[in-house]
Amino acid sequence: xxxxxxxxxxxxxxxxxxxxxxxxxxxxxxxxxxxxxxxxxxxxxxxxxxxxxxxxxxxxxxxxxxxxxxxxxxxxxxxxxxxxxxxxxxxxxxxxxxxxxxxxxxxxxxxxxxxxxxxxxxxxxxxxxxxxxxxxxxxxxxxxxxxxxxxxxxxxxxxxxxxxxxxxxxxxxxxxxxxxxxxxxxxxxxxxxxxxxxxxxxxxxxxxxxxxxxxxxxxxxxxxxxxxxxxxxxxxxxxxxxxxxxxxxxxxxxxxxxxxxxxxxxxxxxxxxxxxxxxxxxxxxxxxxxxxxxxxxxxxxxxxxxxxxxxxxxxxxxxxxxxxxxxxxxxxxxxxxxxxxxxxxxxxxxxxxxxxxxxxxxxxxxxxxxxxxxxxxxxxxxxxxxxxxxxxxxxxxxxxxxxxxxxxxxxxxxxxxxxxxxxxxxxxxxxxxxxxxxxxxxxxxxxxxxxxxxxxxxxxxxxxxxxxxxx
Length: 471
Known about the structure:
Strand 1 (27-31) and strand 2 form a beta hairpin. The protein is α+β, with helices and mostly antiparallel strands. It folds into three domains: 7-27 and 268-466, Multidrug efflux transporter AcrB transmembrane domain (Multidrug efflux transporter AcrB transmembrane fold, Up-down Bundle); 54-126 and 260-264, Alpha-Beta Plaits (2-Layer Sandwich); 130-251, Gyrase A, domain 2 (2-Layer Sandwich), CATH 3.30.1360. It starts with 6 loop residues before the first helix and ends in a 17-residue tail after the last helix. It has helices at residues 7-25, 49-52, 69-85, 117-122, 186-199, 237-249, 270-318, 331-360, 365-398, 404-412, 423-454, and strands spanning 27-31, 34-39, 46-47, 54-61, 92-96, 101-107, 130-134, 138-141, 144-150, 154-157, 161-170, 176-184, 206-210, 213-216, 228-235, 256-264, 328-329. It is elongated. A four-stranded antiparallel sheet has the order 5-6-4-16. A four-stranded antiparallel sheet has the order 10-7-13-14, covered by helices on one side. It has a three-stranded antiparallel sheet with strand order 11-12-15. Helix 8 packs parallel to helix 11 (423-454). The protein has eleven helices and 17 strands.
């Protein structure tokens, strides 16, 4: 491994500063009324009901349908999952079985000042059901002549899909197009294998429908027996992801319509958020002064690392990373960020004390820094692993069932319990996990690079700058 050079500090500091600025302010592009976020920032964070308020919606079965208690419970779980899949972790969903109603509460859209409840309700997504059908035949709906009803024999339904994800593939013209990639269940694989084998070489397509809307109708070129299917169509990445999310969340057991909706006021209010942020800034400044006074140059580096750690937590919540959707920021979520800052401070204190000890034992500056970070890493790792375990369990037990951690824990630990999507607990777990991960990145690796780099400068070779005695 190459030795750390003098320029390393400036490179790492510049990257942390750039990351922090971009995670706070983001990067937007606006042309006329069309606004696109290239990089999401603080303004793109959806605030929880407890901070910003939201909407209260009541759903009921469409028409004169009479839903059973089991159907209401199933619909409630589907809506919970859909909300969490959309990154709306702070929500309340419960059913009233006596009146066949489902009540849903969720926060406003991020940055929305003129709140439109009807538009907010649409964020739940269409209550559509995925079906694969033999042929593409349909007939006009007798109750609504502008609508159609598919008539082809059903080959697969949404329940036959194990997982859906957006992807891309090359079309016949050699250009890449967005698609939805499906992984079928064992039963779905058998059904699809039988259907595609029978239709190979014919002109009969397998059409794909969401409710009464046909998405695509590809012909069958070969039998598909591996349980992998692809939905093609005129997709953008956003529309492909939306469809994949709808499929993953499952189909509702009955069609629903909105019975009523209203806005709800925040329990704490944005004034409370401003107070929390102000208190956080004051606390961070106090911590910065404390670290610099007590640990001097390593303390300055620790403050820079903590800044990067906080920026990392904000980036995770806002959806700064393109491969990961944003999350709702609630009061417990803020508590998770604050707790992770405390963990980060503790890691820097351990390292700072180690450097002091090694210098006072008579080691040279370079040797003291190297040995201190090596010895401190074990203690930091042990302390952070416990927090990682707690965060993973919270996200697995209270997250969307299709998430990575939920799949692992529900198959091994929580399989005896029903799926849940308690957003408040999940919000705390995700900010705690993000803080711990960025503590390792910023407080351990980046800080070590910066301290080692600074020690190469003649003006920073004074042992007193690191808490040691002059020698």
